[in-house]
Amino acid sequence: MFGDLSGMMDKLKEAQQKVEETKTRLNSVLVDETSADKKIKVTLTANREIKAISIDESLLADKEELEDYLIITLNKAIEKASKINENEMAIAAKAGMPNIPGMDMFK
């Protein structure tokens, strides 16, 4: 029984290590999003950290328009980054999960 428990603990540690490695790797995965008219471009990591924002000068004259563009474009970029992040983290967690009866929801 203790042999199984020890093996299970090793698998859980392995899963945790895979998740941490995936988090680190996702810092280098860049997600770009551009507004429909190409006036704003944002770049995020797959961990949803903003790396760059480029704004067309024509938007600088109208504060409200600029704010609207930023909100829409950032939300789209965050949504893309979140999907990548969730998929990669699920794969990493699933790969290291021990075979525990009744815990097949990760498969």
From TrEMBL:
Subcellular location: Cytoplasm, Nucleoid
GO molecular function: DNA binding
The protein's name: Nucleoid-associated protein BTO16_03890
Known partners and oligomeric status: Homodimer.
InterPro entries: YbaB-like_sf, YbaB/EbfC
Similarity comment: family membership: Belongs to the YbaB/EbfC family.
Species: Polaribacter glomeratus
Any single GO CC term annotated in Swiss-Prot or TrEMBL for this entry: cytosol
Described purpose of this protein according to its UniProt entry: Binds to DNA and alters its conformation. May be involved in regulation of gene expression, nucleoid organization and DNA protection.
Coiled coil regions, renumbered to chain: 5-32
Keyword Nucleotide-binding: no
Keywords from the UniProt entry: Coiled coil, Cytoplasm, DNA-binding
